[in-house]
Amino acid sequence: MSKVLLLGDEAIAQAFIDAGGSAINSYPGTPSTQITEYVIKSKEAREKGVVANWCANEKTALEASLGVAYAGKRAMTCMKHVGLNVCGDPVMNAAIIGTKGVIIVVADDPSMFYSQDEQDSRFYGHWAMIPMLEPSNQQEAYDMVFFGYELSEKLGTPVLYRIPTRLAHSRAGVERRPALPQNKLNYPSDPKSFVLLPVNAKRLYRDLIDKQPAFTKSSEESGFNRYFEGTDKSKGIITTGIAYNYLLENFPGGKCPYPVVKITQYPLPFNMLNKLYDECAEIVVLEDGQPFVEEHIKGFLGKGKPVHGRLDETIRRDGELNAEKVAKALGMKVEQGPAVPEVVTNRPPALCQGCPHIDSYEAVIEVLKKYPEGRVFGDIGCYTLGFNMGAINTTVCMGASITMAKGASEMGIFPSIGVIGDGTFGHSGMTGLLDCVNEKANVVIMILDNDITAMTGGQPSSANMKLFNICKGLGVDPDHIRHIVPLKKNHDEFVKILEEEIAYNGVSVIIPQRVCIVENKKRIAANK
Amino acid sequence: MKKDIILCGVGGDGIVSVAKIISDAALALGLYVKQSEIHGMSQRGGSVFSHLRISSDPIFSDVIPEGKADIILSSEPMEALRYLPFLAADGTVITNSDPFVNINNYPDMALINAELAKLPNCVAFNANQIAKELNARGNMVLLGAAARFLDIEFDELEKAIRNIFGRKGEAVVDTNIAAIRAGRDAR
């Protein structure tokens, strides 16, 4: 077959379709979004009857995958690294169940191109005691989906599949394989296997422990982890995922003189690591992420031969890995182009011209002039950029606007205003609003409704068209659920509504409603 | 053959399309390709970039190391300067000279032009003006100007444009081809 040019994300998506995947349930999060989007847009997937859905959040998405697995079919759930926190519960317990046919794809974001932290998902996989895959290039990203399903079904375990931004969002030629049929509907053979009552769970946890040697054996024998002999044994090098490419980049023709263990599958292949340790004077660990492997092999006491990496800051601990950092760590010369001239100024991202959030924030800024002690608790989305306008005081994690506003108001911060988008409200704002209602918190919650999940490129928002009824259903007094169209001409009315709701002692919800300007352009173009 | 190209500009100006066209042409020629780009929040009027690597030998890193880029192709003059640390000693900068001013503290153009003039190999011209006459986009004109540095036959770029824009209709294909030809002839 000829090669097709695919993003790492797209290679995973195409492999999911080709490997007989039946359902992909995900929540958008850059840099993982393009996987599910590709399947949703794929004609091939549609013709095969593949289910492809955006869900309310990562937890609901992964639980749907467990349902798919219960039916004996191949499932995938994709998310960004922080999304893995949201579905930590089903991840840990899917591991205990030994769920077959589930791949959990997590896109980590070293250097925080799109995110609020650099957490490394491999710690989760290790904690859950499940096999992990970390491809080093787009072709492996494709091939490892096939392998991941085989591994999952053969050994009875979900598989955590980790990619960093640079693989997710980089294209290369990928060769496809002949497509496999989907699995037939097949109920679990053991009726107790999906019932985590303590009596079953104790047995299943023991099963998971007993499976560990088989997981390691696969890591040592599958062929994805490789030991490359080297002539210069002054150093032994361990690479994980795409770090392998950054190593080879430094040697003409990719001919590295040092012995190398290339890791793309976990648990760690102990036989290869032991061999490297025995043969070489010192070890250098190259990983694009946190020092996961380094911590494991160095141990708490750091005895034995020297092990260098991010822990001892031979490589800076924060930020993504690259070829230059690897070169420095190996004591090689690093090239440099001209410096950035001083005249160059920053060009930060900003809300688009005509964005409805600008009008909402202008109203908030004006009202807050009267309340210098008041605070605005922000959330995750395009509207986080309101910080650059001086409109919000916090951004922490999905949904924290509403709940932080509640906590702060109970400590006397007045007014406490929460600002959240419609997409994020559907993801994890609703439960926080219920807390506010139950505690009669004195908060004003603004749900910026732009009719779409905008920041990730325009996925449907789960609470779309339902915001009023959701708020009412959660117990917000309908008289204090207010709508406004955020436009310049409505500025005075917006300010008045805000002032009225600040004056009301209780839970108020204001819903500024106007479609995202980018989405609107797309819709107009589509209707032409 | 090996070409490492930094494509840069401002979110929304279509540098990713240029990267796709070159990639498509290179892949059709049986070359190895890696093209890395940044999506999402950085697109909202901020500085954006894409790393494009094409080679007759396997490519390792998805990103170009500093000091190794053969070409910086920029749709905006200040953005061209921002990525200079990637430029190889014998590398070439090809940039639009028309600034995109969406920040209050955009520097004096005379200072930017002075920095561009210091570069040993720099092609700077107003691609937007040429594009406007053709009702096309500046990025395609720039691609035309870059063509002679790419070691890819011009016909192959035209084929790639047909391939990528074909489903949008003949008019779109023709406009884009006219734009890259105008860019080629302008420099």
Structure in words:
The complex is a heterodimer of chains A (528) and B (187). Chain A is of the alpha/beta class and 528 residues long. Chain A has helices at residues 8-18, 33-41, 43-47, 58-70, 81-86, 88-97, 122-128, 138-155, 165-168, 198-221, 243-248, 270-279, 292-298, 323-329, 356-368, 400-410, 422-428, 430-438, 467-474, 491-503, 517-527, and strands spanning 3-7, 21-26, 51-54, 74-80, 102-108, 132-133, 159-164, 170-175, 226-228, 236-240, 260-263, 265-266, 283-286, 307-308, 375-377, 416-421, 443-448, 481-484, 507-512. Chain A has a 7-stranded mixed sheet with strand order 3-2-4-5-7-6-12, sandwiched between helices. In chain A, strands 9-11-10-13-14 form a 5-stranded mixed sheet. In chain A, strand 13 (283-286), helix 13 (292-298) and strand 14 form a beta-alpha-beta unit. In chain A, helix 4 (58-70) packs parallel to helix 6. The two termini of chain A are 37 Å apart. Chain B has 187 residues and is an alpha/beta fold. Chain B has a single domain, classed as Pyruvate-ferredoxin Oxidoreductase, domain 3, CATH 3.40.920. Helix content of chain B is 42%, strand content 24%. A 6-stranded mixed sheet of chain B has the order 2-3-1-4-5-6. The interface between A and B is large, with 50 and 56 residues. Strand 8 (170-175) of chain A pairs antiparallel with strand 2 (32-37) of chain B.
**Strand order, sheet with most strands of chain B:** 2-3-1-4-5-6
Q: Biggest interface between protein chains, with counts per chain? A: A-B, 50 and 56 residues
Termini gap of chain B = 23 Å
Percent of residues in beta strands of chain A: 15-25%
Q: Based on helices, strands and strand pairing, what is the structural class of chain B? A: alpha/beta
Oligomer: heterodimer
CATH architecture of chain B: 3-Layer(aba) Sandwich
Features:
heterodimer; A: 528 residues; alpha/beta; 7-stranded mixed sheet; 21 helices; 40% helix; B: 187 residues; Pyruvate-ferredoxin Oxidoreductase, domain 3; 6-stranded mixed sheet; 6 strands; 24% strand; globular
